[in-house]
Amino acid sequence: MGLFNFIKDELIEVIDWVESGGDVIVWKFPDKDCNIKYGAQLTVRESQVAMMLDEGKFADMYQPGMHTLITDNMPLLTSLRNWKTGFKSPFLADVYFVSTRQFTNLKWGTPNPIILRDPEFKQVRVKAFGTYFIQVKDPKKMFTSFAGTAKQLSVRDIEARMRDIIAPKFAEALAEAQVSVLDMASNYTELGDKIRPMIQAEFEPFGIELTKFQVTSTSLPKEVEEFYDKMTNMHMVGDDMAKFTQFQSANAIEKAAENPGGSGEAIGAGIGIGMGSMMANQLQQSQQQLNQQNQPPPAPKAETKEDIMNMLKDLGGLKEAGILTQKEFDAKKKELLARL
């Protein structure tokens, strides 16, 4: 009885997989080198398929349902083994389960900034992050091309292996889309739809379908963000010709504040003296205005040709610096040329 019970215990009679974690895609049934009993029950649940391997070679595949492992239900394995009809002995085979459900919230990102040609900033470095969803569509191809003989394959293994593929494809899609970084946030959905087919071509050989690809965030270098903030504030100034001067003054004050020692203190002191002088001048100007209220305003100073040419040169400098748009430049240029 002891020997009979030992042999009986060594035979596998029930084969199934109850998924305990949410990130396992491929799982090998732990046979522990035991023989599978002829006539054993194989249970395949919804969103699963089971595969039988003979000496590492793919044999039979089973869809959801309960399957009795007999000669009629193992056509390829029976052919490989040359078993005759009515074979009743135990057999040895590896059983793998593959999850065919959809796996969500896989993460992707650009490990290094992507250099992008931008219509506003010419060239800029961009980092991007997002998520994507996958689903196994061809279990045999997925097993033979990706999983191999691993006892378990998780979605994190795929996530890590695909990270180096997604980043360059994202860079290609950005270059084709020609979207300014300022407008990128409003085009996340469009970018995701454009990138998905490009990345799907990389997933196809592994039997994996990319069901969704999302861009969730992009970031610019700190200095670009700061420059953009300054440009925004500068465009709020009404007088176009005074923008550049005001911009330069703001930068000088900011640099003085960041350097409290050495020349920064002198610059800071100079700014303080300048502020005091400016207040005194304002008081003096107010007094002069009161004294001149009853006097007729002086005739405006006539502009010389040299003055207008200098203003045209300044105007060109503002356009080259990106402070004035082409439209603003053309309008102001037309106005100045009309004065000649």
Task: Describe the model.
With 340 residues, the chain is of the alpha+beta class. It has 3 domains: 2-99, no CATH class; 102-220, Band 7 domain (Tetrahydropterin Synthase, Chain A), CATH 3.30.479.30; 222-264 and 305-340, no CATH class. The protein contains 10 helices and 12 strands. The protein has helices at residues 2-10, 75-81, 139-147, 155-177, 188-203, 222-234, 243-258, 263-291, 305-320, 326-339, and strands at 11-15, 24-28, 35-44, 48-54, 57-62, 65-68, 94-99, 102-109, 114-118, 122-136, 152-154, 208-219. It has a 5-stranded antiparallel beta sheet. Helix 4 (155-177) crosses helix 5, helix 7 (243-258) crosses helix 8 (263-291) and helix 9 runs antiparallel to helix 10 (326-339). The longest helix has 29 residues, at 263-291.
